[in-house]
Amino acid sequence: MVKKLLSLMAVGVFALPLAANAVVIDFESLQHVDGLTTYHGSTYSEDGFTLTQGANEPHALATFGTLESRFTGSTALFNDTISGVVTLTRTGGGLFNLFSIDLAELNGSSIAQVVFTSNNNDSQTFTLDGNAFGAETFAFNGLFQGISSVSWVQASPFHQFDNICIDDRTCQRNGVPEPGSLALLGLGITGLAAVRRRRQH
């Protein structure tokens, strides 16, 4: 019995790192310390994923410098074309799970609505609160798992986006372990307690 528990504990210990396979597209590589708007072209790739603008949009994907009044405290990307479309895909193709995204106002406090549509034509709308300028985290429902693309429009009064969480819920749980990880941890503690009791008898 003790050997069995120790074997399960060993499997659990080695499985823990494999559970945390989240990708968070955070755009920090685009940070610039100035008060400018910097343009980054019609496509941007990070961590195996690509964001692409719609065809023939006149203004590129952009970021605000850290000294610009609309900088949220974290580098966020935005489509600088009114009614422009951004599409997220896995670079080279393939399915992914989309769990959450941070959205922020673009021009001061505003009640912006952002509609996300998957390749399966499932959609979900997020509404910024408009109470204060800054990023809010929005969680996608289960319809955005096993998708090959998701698109959204830069509609008035406009938004910027950051911290796109893909493939694992851990990135939206603020460091709290996943239920599977907690179960493995509980199994390990139970096993240690059983070993200790056995040695005391």
Task: Tell me what the structure shows.
- The protein is of the alpha+beta class.
- The chain folds into two domains: 1-20 and 178-201, no CATH class; 23-173, Sandwich (Jelly Rolls).
- The chain has helices at residues 2-19, 179-200, and strands at 23-25, 37-39, 43-46, 49-53, 61-64, 78-79, 85-90, 98-105, 113-118, 123-127, 136-139, 149-153, 159-166.
- It has a six-stranded antiparallel β-sheet, with no helix packed on it.
- Helix 1 runs antiparallel to helix 2.
- The radius of gyration is 21 Å and the shape is globular.
- The two termini are 15 Å apart.
- The model is unreliable at 1-20 and 173-185 (pLDDT under 50).
Short description:
This protein has 201 residues and is an alpha+beta fold.
The run of helices and strands is HEEEEEEEEEEEEEH
Named at the architecture level, the CATH assignment of the largest domain is: Sandwich
The CATH topology of the largest domain is given as Jelly Rolls
Number of distinct helices = 2
Counting copies of identical and different chains, the oligomeric state is single chain
Report the β-strand fraction as a percent range.
25-35%
How many discrete domains? 2
- The largest beta-sheet arranges its strands as 3-4-7-12-9-10
Highlighted features:
201 residues, alpha+beta, Jelly Rolls, globular
SSE blueprint and pairings:
Layout: H1 2-19, E1 23-25, E2 37-39, E3 43-46, E4 49-53, E5 61-64, E6 78-79, E7 85-90, E8 98-105, E9 113-118, E10 123-127, E11 136-139, E12 149-153, E13 159-166, H2 179-200
Antiparallel strand pairs: 1-13, 2-5, 3-4, 4-7, 5-6, 7-12, 8-11, 8-13, 9-10, 9-12
Helix pairs in contact: 1-2
